[in-house]
Amino acid sequence: MIKAISFALSGAVALIVAAGPALAGDAEKGEAIYKKRCKACHEIAPGKNRVGPSLFGVLDRQAGTMPKFKYSKSYIAAGEAGLTWSEEKIVEYLANPKKYMRKVTGNKKAKSKMVFKLKNETERQDVTAYIATIN
């Protein structure tokens, strides 16, 4: 009986570890980062695009599918290949959008209209935590 309980607990721990830790971003700090670095190109209101697509509802959205926004071929291809935005993917993407698109599409020539890079990991997590609050 004890072996069965021990085995069940070790399985539960393995599932939790495999799921990975939740992002530890601070949404309040992320809002300040959004206003300072993202707002010029990205709206957070539904259906309102700027130079970049609206970030409202971006989580769990297939890449390249915001209505009334003209995406590059790379984003459309990534979406068609199954890229759906999650918090973890956004954090990785923000470090270097072009490099990320090349990775997910497998195309060494993939491009991104977004040339901005948010190099600081904590800031990427914070802004992503804020984006999660508006979805």
Protein described:
With 135 residues, the protein is mainly alpha-helical. The protein has a single domain (24-133), classed as Cytochrome Bc1 Complex, Chain D, domain 2. Helix content is 51%, strand content 0%. The chain is built from six helices and no strands. The protein has helices at 2-19, 27-38, 73-80, 87-95, 97-105, 121-133. Helix 2 packs across helix 6 (121-133) and helix 4 packs across helix 5 (97-105). The longest helix has 18 residues, at 2-19. The protein is globular. The N and C termini lie far apart (45 Å).
CATH C-level: Mainly Alpha
Mean pLDDT: 87
Q: Domain count, please report it.
A: 1
Radius of gyration: 18 Å
**Helix-strand pattern:** HHHHHH
- Main beta-sheet strand count, sense and barrel state: none
CATH superfamily membership, which one?
Answer: Cytochrome c-like domain
* Residues in helix, %: 40-55%
- Which blocks of ≥5 consecutive residues have pLDDT under 50? 1-21
Treating each run of at least 4 consecutive H or I residues as one helix, how many helices? 6
Q: Which class of secondary structure composition applies to the elements?
A: mainly alpha
Kindly, what is the distance between the CA atoms of the first and last residues, rounded to a whole number of angstroms? 45 Å
Instruction: Write the CATH fold name.
Output: Cytochrome Bc1 Complex, Chain D, domain 2
